[in-house]
Amino acid sequence: MSAVKADKRVARDAAAARRDAAHAAAPGAAEAAAERLDAALADLPPGATVSGYLAFRSELDPAPALTRLAARGAALCMPVVEAKGRPLVFRRWRPGALTTMGVFGVEIPADETTLTPDVVIAPMLAFDRAGFRLGYGGGFYDRTLAALRAAGAVRAIGFAYAGQEVAAVPREPTDARLDMIVTESELIRCG
């Protein structure tokens, strides 16, 4: 195991505890963050495709933001893990749509129609102001963003509690930088 991978493993435990604490301390954070995300995506054309996520554990819940985006005409989708070492695929989703249990105990849309997102809203354990995120360790978002960016433009937005910020996320050359990070207290433009 490389030194960076070992650093990430240690950082994940501390980051999960910080996220749990931020979640407990900020019951109105999802709505405040939704307002910031809505403003950040004000230039999104009707019909654009946005990938969100169905909140897991103490992740900041993007549901209020996704509901607003759907009302403005965005097509929504959710990430699905199909196999280890592969990029995510994105299944069509609407607020209130049926879900099923996917890999790692995460809910996924029951609708198997796949879409290609113009915007990816990503959960995380931690982030830094340079735009790097600490995820769960599978590299799914890094592979996915690399593939999407190779095929064309995509906007990558981290969605997290302000309390998840760290000075610097341990990083490897394959880690994908986010374009912005939205929290309940600010919008951070990265890179």
Automatic annotation (TrEMBL):
EC assignment: 6.3.3.2
Residues that, per the record, bind substrate: L54, E59
Keywords linked to the UniProt accession: ATP-binding, Ligase, Magnesium, Metal-binding, Nucleotide-binding
Name of the protein this chain belongs to: 5-formyltetrahydrofolate cyclo-ligase
UniProt keyword Metal-binding, yes or no: yes
Catalytic activity: (6S)-5-formyl-5,6,7,8-tetrahydrofolate + ATP = (6R)-5,10-methenyltetrahydrofolate + ADP + phosphate
Binding residue positions for ATP: R133, L134, G135, Y136, G137, G138, G139, F140, Y141
Cofactor: Mg(2+)
PANTHER family: 5-FORMYLTETRAHYDROFOLATE CYCLO-LIGASE (PTHR23407:SF1), ATPASE INHIBITOR/5-FORMYLTETRAHYDROFOLATE CYCLO-LIGASE (PTHR23407)
Keyword ATP-binding attached: yes
Family indicated by similarity: Belongs to the 5-formyltetrahydrofolate cyclo-ligase family.
Top class in the EC scheme: ligase
GO biological process: folic acid-containing compound biosynthetic process; tetrahydrofolate interconversion
InterPro entries membership: FTHF_cligase, FTHF_cligase-like_sf, NagB/RpiA_transferase-like
Molecular-function GO term, any one: 5-formyltetrahydrofolate cyclo-ligase activity
Any Pfam family: 5-FTHF_cyc-lig
